[in-house]
Specification:
By secondary structure, this protein is an alpha/beta fold. Helix content is about 55%, strand content about 10%. The chain has three domains: about 1-85; about 90-195, Nitrogenase molybdenum iron protein domain (Rossmann fold), CATH 3.40.50.1980; about 215-340, 3-Layer(aba) Sandwich (Rossmann fold), CATH 3.40.50.1980. The protein has helices at about 1-20, 25-85, 95-105, 135-140, 155-165, 175-190, 195-215, 235-245, 270-275, 290-295, 305, 325-340, and strands spanning about 90-95, 110-115, 145-150, 170, 220-225, 250, 280, 310-315. The chain has a four-stranded parallel sheet.
Length: about 350
């Protein structure tokens, strides 16, 4: 269109110049030539303006297309985020103290609306009178949860929750540190905190590797669950933690076939004969036991651990849960091993 218009104007200019050139008056001829040149110049300028206008319009169109594409991407991202949020639980009930600790450690604490009566850590956990051993379906549903986490529940409870449309995640007692890592990652995936869970696992692995490298790797020990002398074998999670430090568990001999599921009850005579290098008390809270009470037990003054002052008082909770604080538990054990060779 622009080209046709330009050619037309140039044609007019040329005819005008020719007509004026045939006149006998040279001044008129010159005026005609000037007029033709002026028309040609105007035509070219107008064509350039049209071209510039078209280019500007094209650039505006491209800019609008880019803006539209960006808006579409933003809308898609928002839709994806909304979809992800829709599938992420925001009203969690934890009936497992270990799971409670993990949830808060990976940054999912804000999504927890209630925990069982034994979930006393961290301090901000919303502890209630809910029971993890005998869960009350009606009481739990009263909180309107969208996820319930247990350390093992009856089929009837799970079925009742399922009928109410509430999913139940069962995280059974860990047997090894690897089980702990797996449960942390599972909770991270379930609550939308995958990165935080992975970071926690990596930090725990690093800390545990450093601690095991410091352990002496020698010595025997006795781990006391309560003042009736129940203990744990290496087949349990707690016993597995001790094995990371290279210690030998005297309770293994009391349950060689697993008849007591890794929790045998020892006798005072058995302990005196075994004479462990180290004694660890995981009954300081439940039973008020400490180095003084143990030393005062009949016949225990003959034990090497008592004579050498190698009795270590533990926090019952830290020493019985398979959450992130297992690192703190292992640190106490490793520090205790250093006293054997000193």
């Amino acid at each position: 269109m622009k080209l046709i218009r330009l050619v037309t104007l140039l044609l007019v200019a040329a005819l005008l110049a020719a007509a004026c050139g045939s006149s006998e008056d040279s001044s008129v001829s010159l005026s005609g030539e000037e007029a033709a040149e002026e028309i040609a110049a105007e035509a070219e300028a107008e064509a350039d303006a049209d071209e510039a206008e078209e280019e500007a319009a094209m650039e505006d169109d491209e800019a609008m297309e880019e803006e539209a594409a960006e808006e579409a991407m933003e809308d898609e991202a928002m839709e994806d985020e909304a979809a992800a949020d829709a599938g992420t639980p925001s009203a969690i009930i934890s009936l497992s103290p270990s799971s409670t600790e993990i949830l808060f450690a990976i940054g999912a604490g804000d999504q927890v609306i209630a925990v069982d009566s034994f979930s006393n850590y961290p301090a901000e956990a919303p502890t209630t009178d809910l029971s993890g051993f005998d869960p009350n379906t009606e009481a739990i549903l009263g909180f309107e949860p969208d996820l319930v986490i247990t350390s093992g529940s009856t089929d009837d409870f799970v079925a009742a929750m399922d009928a109410a449309g509430v999913p139940v995640m069962q995280q059974f007692a860990a047997v090894s540190i690897d089980d702990t890592y797996a449960q942390i990652e599972q909770l991270g995936a379930e609550t939308g905190h995958v990165a935080e869970a992975a970071e926690l696992v990596l930090q725990m692995q690093t800390d545990i590797d450093e601690l095991t490298a410091q352990a002496s790797g020698t010595g025997t020990f006795y781990h006391e669950l309560d003042d009736t002398l129940f203990s744990v074998t290496t087949s349990t999670f707690v016993g597995n933690v001790y094995s990371l430090a290279g210690l030998t568990n005297i309770a293994d001999a009391a349950d060689p076939d697993g008849e007591f599921f890794g929790y045998p009850q020892l006798s005072a005579e058995f302990l005196v004969d075994a004479d462990p290098d180290l004694i660890f008390l995981a009954d300081t809270k439940c039973c008020g036991q400490n180095a003084a009470t143990v030393s005062a037990r009949p016949g225990w003054d003959a034990l090497t651990a008592v004579q050498e002052g190698r009795i270590f008082e533990l926090d019952d909770d830290v020493a019985s849960r398979w959450g992130p604080r297992v690192v703190d538990f292992l640190r106490i054990i490793v520090e205790a091993t250093a006293t054997i060779s000193s």
